[in-house]
């Protein structure tokens, strides 16, 4: 199985329902969603990164230490031609697998140890935002899906709440996450989101890796 790898590293999961869990990260190359605040633009070019087989990537990750969780991220993993085979192999090698996706494509499979962290985009973020909401019903049908909405300045919060209602997202599966690459920006937005989550019955996601190490690669 041939993959296009942006980077491989060992860290703590910094976002979503498994925040704080030691994890291997397999970052795939290639994305055309075009989020304006993207902090991994180096993954956009599908010809960037490097070629590696699944076995080579697994060996590199295992050499970094043991972890109970594999996080497949990008780029946009669901645009990668080998994603289904990658996930099927990974579920045989890790106790749990999470996929970070914009949802621009539907989920290709379900498994009791596979979690989708679906982050549909808000109108201020990209011209392709509507496409990332197109498959929400398919993702919501899997109770292991978490909808992780990244919220910046207004009108993001109002748009997020409107889209949650319009798409009838299960509130126990929704997390709001502050957008930002600095501690000050995250803290300011997190305070507002915390109050909204209390009122709306939603969960809030941290950006643990940014708070711990700043906005840099490999963490």
Descriptive tags:
219 residues, alpha/beta, TIM Barrel
Please mark out the parts with pLDDT under 50 across 5 or more consecutive residues, or reply none. Answer: none
Gross geometry? globular
Q: How many domains make up the coordinates?
A: 1
- CATH architecture verdict: Alpha-Beta Barrel
CATH class categorisation: Alpha Beta
Percentage beta strand: 15-25%
Cα(first) to Cα(last) distance is 26 Å
Radius of gyration: 16 Å
Number of DSSP helical runs: 6
The average pLDDT value, as a whole number, equals 96
CATH-defined topology: TIM Barrel
Short description:
By secondary structure, the protein is of the alpha/beta class.
Provide an overview of this structure.
By secondary structure, this protein is α/β, with parallel strands linked by helices. It has one domain: Aldolase class I (TIM Barrel). It contains six helices and nine strands. It has a nine-stranded mixed sheet. Helix 4 links the parallel strand 7 and strand 8. It is globular. The mean pLDDT is 96.
List the helices and strands and how they pair.
Elements: E1 2-12, E2 22-28, E3 50-53, H1 54-63, E4 69-73, H2 83-93, E5 96-101, E6 114-118, H3 136-140, E7 146-151, H4 156-166, E8 174-178, H5 183-200, E9 203-204, H6 208-213
Parallel strand pairs: 2-4, 4-5, 5-6, 6-7, 7-8, 8-9
Antiparallel strand pairs: 1-2, 1-3
């Amino acid at each position: 199985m041939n993959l296009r790898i942006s980077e491989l590293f060992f860290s703590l999961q910094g976002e979503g329902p498994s925040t704080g869990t030691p994890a291997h990260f397999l970052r795939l190359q290639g994305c055309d969603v075009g989020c304006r605040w993207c902090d991994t633009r180096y993954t956009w070019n599908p010809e960037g990164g490097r070629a590696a087989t699944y076995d080579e990537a697994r060996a590199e990750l295992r050499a970094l230490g043991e972890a109970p969780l594999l996080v497949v991220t990008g780029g946009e993993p669901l645009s990668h031609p080998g994603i289904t085979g990658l996930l099927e192999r990974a579920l045989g090698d890790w106790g749990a697998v999470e996929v970070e996706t914009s949802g621009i494509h539907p989920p290709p499979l379900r498994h009791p140890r596979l979690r989708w962290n679906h982050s549909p985009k808000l109108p201020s973020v990209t011209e392709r935002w509507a496409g990332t909401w197109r498959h929400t019903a398919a993702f919501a049908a899997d109770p292991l899906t978490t909808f992780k909405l990244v919220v910046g300045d207004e009108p993001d919060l109002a748009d997020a709440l409107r889209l949650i209602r319009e798409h009838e997202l299960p509130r126990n599966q929704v997390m709001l996450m502050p957008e930002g690459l600095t501690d000050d920006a995250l803290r300011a937005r997190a305070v507002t989101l915390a109050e909204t989550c209390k009122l709306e019955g939603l969960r809030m996601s941290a950006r643990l890796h940014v708070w711990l190490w700043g906005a840099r690669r490999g963490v």
